[in-house]
Each structure stands twice: as structure tokens, then as C-alpha cells.
């Protein structure tokens, strides 16, 4: 009996445009959770679990922010600080998602997008579940501090990429309206034809 062929958008890493990036991304996302769970169950050495989990979370944060987000979904974000005033603001960047010939950017892979957004939203949810379990089990409160740090790092990336995606969709909608024969083009054409008709 033959297995059905996977279709675009299915959750199969073999369909990814960047399988190595995807596997490292998923590995970093899962490893911090697994190490925390296994470490809290099988050892009472909080310092070891804390240090290794923080290192895995930092690697996940860096890899997601600087590599996986750009390669899998074409999104990047960073925070710029004005040295004169001390004000900071977030900067969001996105690739052209259409994959059109004039943009030169490849179209986004549906499998990469599904894996990215699923893992992006699932990890903070799992940390919230672990926080609830930690409070219910009445573990040493210091274990909860590690969960709070994990939530800060994962929610920061989740919010930043969500905003980046929102802004990229808005800018692509605006640019398509301006340049692809949309409403703005027809309004401008009608205005100029009336102006020069005499």
C-alpha cells in the first residue's frame, strides 16, 4: 500500500525550502523545554538546569531572531536606540512575499511558514503550562524564575514577529494598491484624464 505524497504546506520537514534551518529551529525550540522538564524531574541540581536552559533559550532567541525568521518566513526585527536621546524603537523588515520576477525574491514555502508560526506560538504556551504546573506542584519558587525568563524571551520573539508580519502584510497591501493597477492607479488615471481633457 502506497503512502500518499505530502502536499505543499504539510508538516513534513522534507518539503521545506531550508530543511537544515528548519531542523535547527525546531531543535532549539524543543531542547530548552525538554531540558527543563527532564532536569526538573530527574535532578534537583537547579544551577545546572538553570544554566543549560538559559543557554538553550538564548541560542533559540538568537537563531529565531536572526536566522530562522529571515530564511523561513522572510521577516526580521531589531531594536534601535538613539544614542543622543536614549529613545528606542523597533524596526521591522520583510522580504517581498509574492515571489514575482521583478522583486527577485523567492516565494515563501507553505511548509516553512506553517512550522514557523506553529512553533513560534506553541513554545510560549508550553512555558505557561509549565508555570501552572510549577505553581500547582509547589516546587521551589526559584524554578519559577527560570520559567519567567523563558516566557520573557519567547514572548518577545512572538510579539515581534507577529508585529513584523502584520506590518509586512499592510505594506504589501499598500504597495499592491499603489503599483499593481489597484484602486489608487485607477483613481489617479481618472483624475489626470479629467484634468487634461479640457
Number of strands: 2
Question: Using only CA atoms, what is the Rg?
Answer: 22 Å
Low-pLDDT residue spans: 173-184, 186-198
Can you count the helices? 5
Q: List SSEs in N-to-C order.
A: HHEEHHH
Which overall shape is indicated by the principal axes computed on the Cα atoms?
globular
Largest sheet: 2 strands, antiparallel
Distance between the termini: 74 Å
Helix content: 55-70%
Give the rounded overall mean pLDDT.
Answer: 80
Strand numbers in spatial order across the main sheet: 1-2
How much strand content do the residues show?
5-15%
Tell me the structural class. mainly alpha
Could you characterize what this model shows?
The chain contains five helices and two strands; from the N terminus they run ααββααα. The protein is mostly helical. Strands 1-2 form a two-stranded antiparallel ribbon. The chain is globular. The termini are far apart. The C terminus is likely disordered.
What brief labels describe this structure?
mainly alpha; disordered C terminus; single chain; two-stranded antiparallel sheet; 198 residues; 5 helices; 7% strand
